[in-house]
Each structure stands twice: as structure tokens, then as C-alpha cells.
Amino acid sequence: MQLSNKQILIIFLLGAVLTIFGAIMKIMHWPLASLVIILGMTFEAAAGVFMIYKMSKKQDKKDGFLDS
């Protein structure tokens, strides 16, 4: 599965939004706050894994990661 840089960024940003929203829920003692935080951090971790995989498979080392 080959993801573009834009898709990886969207996954990471979605995870960040979920994590922040989960933290706000946790502060306000709303139910399911821990689940939202775990879900957000899972998205962030998945985006990181995709980014590392894409950087390791890059053939041309002269171009930057964001150029591909």
C-alpha cells in the first residue's frame, strides 16, 4: 500500500485532533475519553510508521522527503 505524503499528513493531523479532543474530554470527565485518546495516538503512530517506511524505500536520496 503506497500512501502519498498528503495522505500521511492527513492521517497524522486526524490523530492529533483526536488526541487533543480526547484530552479535553478527559479534563471534563466525559465518558470514552480514554478511548478517543488511544484512537488518536494510534493514528499518529500509524502515520509515523508509514512515513518511516516511505523514507526507507526512497530510491533517489538527493530529493527531500516532501518533494516526492
Structure write-up:
- The structure is a single chain.
- It is elongated, with a radius of gyration of 15 Å.
- The chain has one domain.
- 69% of the residues lie in helices and 0% in strands.
- 9% of the residues are buried.
- The chain is mainly alpha-helical and 68 residues long.
- It is built from two helices and no strands.
- The mean pLDDT is 89.
- It has helices spanning 5-27, 33-56.
- The longest helix has 24 residues, at 33-56.
- Keywords: Membrane, Transmembrane, Transmembrane helix.
- This is Gliding motility protein GldL-like N-terminal domain-containing protein.
- Residues 14-60 form the Gliding motility protein GldL-like N-terminal domain.
- The chain crosses the membrane at residues 32-53.
- InterPro entries: GldL-like_N.
Q: Strand-residue fraction?
A: under 5%
Whole-number mean pLDDT = 89
Main beta sheet, described?
A: none
Uncertain segments are none
Helical residues, percent:
55-70%
Spatial gap, N to C terminus: 16 Å
Structural class: mainly alpha
Counted up, domains total: 1
Shape: elongated
The run of helices and strands is: HH
Helical stretch count?
Answer: 2
What Rg, in angstroms, do the CA atoms define?
15 Å
State the total count of DSSP E strands.
0
